[in-house]
Predict the structure.
Amino acid sequence: MSILKLENISYHYDRSKVEVLDNINMEFNENKIYTIVGKSGAGKTTLLSVLSSLAAPTGGKIYLRDEDISKIDRYKFRSRYVGVIFQNFNLLTHLTALENVILSMDISGKKFDRPKKEIALELLQKVGLDEGEARRRVLKLSGGQQQRVAIARALSYDPDIILADEPTGNLDGETQDEIIGIFRMLANEGKCVIIVTHSPEVAAASDVTYELKKTIA
Ligand SMILES: Nc1ncnc2c1ncn2[C@@H]1O[C@H](COP(=O)(O)OP(=O)(O)O)[C@@H](O)[C@H]1O
Ligand SMILES: [Mg+2]
C-alpha cells in the first residue's frame, strides 16, 4: 500500500474550463525522494496544492494509505500528515527561525512529549543551523539558511510526507547539494519526500521522477 496515491486527478481553476491537471495517476511511498518535473506552466505548483490539500481536485481521488482524503478533515490533513516547503518559503521574517518552527508546532495542535523549544532547536540543528542562527530573525539569514528554516518548519509536527516547491530554485550549486542531502537524510529516516523542480540535477538525485505535460498551449 502506498502512502499517497493519486487516481485520475484533474484540476481546473474556478472560471476556467481548461484542465491544468488532466487525469494524473501517481503513487508515492515512504523512504523515497520523488521529483515532479515539467515546463513552466505545466501545473507543478497546482499539483502541489492538490497534494497538500490546499486545493481540492475537481476530479479523481487521492488516498492517504487506503483512506480517501476527501473524507479526512482538510485542516487536520494539512497540519498533521504533510509538511509543505513553499517556493518563497512563506516564513514570518520578523520572527526568529526558532519562533517560526515553534509557531508551526503550536498551530498543528499536536501534543509533544518534550518542550517545543527543545524539539525545535534540535530540528534546526538537524538541517544545519546552530543555536545562534536559530535565534536570529529570518530576515537576517541567507537564502540557503531560510530554506533550512522552511524545511525545519515543515518537519515541526513530524509529518510522514514532505512536499517542496522548487526548493533549490534560488540557491547556488553547493547549497543545492546540501539541501538535497537533507532531503536524502529525511527519506532514509522514512519520510516520503516529494519535490517539484525544474532542476535536472535534483531530478537525477531523486529515486523516482514523474513528468507533468503542459495541457495549455
Ligand atoms: N490562481 C490561478 N488561477 C487561474 N489559473 C492559474 C492559477 N494559478 C495557476 N494558473 C494556471 O495554471 C497553469 C499551471 O500553473 P502552475 O501550476 O503554477 O505551473 P508550474 O508550477 O508548473 O509553473 C498555468 O497555465 C497557470 O497560468
Ligand atoms: Mg510553479
Q: What stands out?
A: The chain has one domain: 4-211. Residues 4-211 form a domain with the Rossmann fold fold (CATH 3.40.50.300). The first strand starts at residue 4 and ends at 11. Helices lie at 44-51, 74-81, 97-108, 116-126, 131-134, 143-155, 173-188, 200-204.
